[in-house]
Amino acid sequence: MWPKLAAIALGLLFWQVVVWSGWKPSYLLPGPWTVLDTLWHNLLGGSPVSGHLLKATSVTMQRAVVGYCLALVIGTALGVAVARSRILRTALGSLITGFQTMPSVAWLPLAVVLFQTSERAILFVLLIGAIPSIANGVLSGIDNIPPLLLRAGRVLGARGYAEYRHVILPAALPGFVAGMKQAWAFAWRSLLAGELIVQIAHRPSLGQTLNNASNQNDYAGLMAGMVLILIVGLLMDALVFGRLERTVLRRRGLALASDGGPQGRALLRRRALVEAAVDPGGAGGRLT
Question: Closest Cα to residue 100, out of 175, 179, 197?
């Protein structure tokens, strides 16, 4: 925990030093304490300019959860379909990666043309941003499954749906979780980009809050909204995807091996002993 707190403290200190340097006027670049005070005020009651951040966060998170869940279903189905078919992989493999590399903001004009300034326009941009990452995560996880595991599953009678249900998808889970984590980052960025452009009446959002604060020269409110967006992203990573990733790795004995603690060192020692028994003349046999 302390390394994270130290990193936050160093970041705030650097921010304050930049403000003290006089690089920009204080009304353009307010200090961290001014911004944090504004953030607290806007979270509680809001201002006519920045709005009520709690309500805006609720609307944005609702869009994020709905859009991400849809992207998860579509991206998983797409990834499995492409992985199962050599023709689909040849036709769509590089196309999926191409969509993933496209900036989300590039889709906004088309989204507005197709769906006007509506919730569907924001959802469209979010889906386009998240689906390719999930599909590529599924493909990467399936491609990295050891062939021996697949052969063992077939010997035990796993075929068709049963093979995917009991062998392929569980074995591909680490790569899939990595794709989910990356997809959330793309979805979050796409959502905020969409909300900056597509603003809907009586539906305040974090993106709309940033836009309103910028238009009204409320730079403390602008940076307060940015800090809140960063906090939400960090919390989602730590409380949802970070825990999910650690759970998956721990069940496979990977988290302990990389944490550097006593249990991790013991696990590495046992692995080296097994490798030495299997291949006495190889790298595993050269124990010190």
Answer: 179
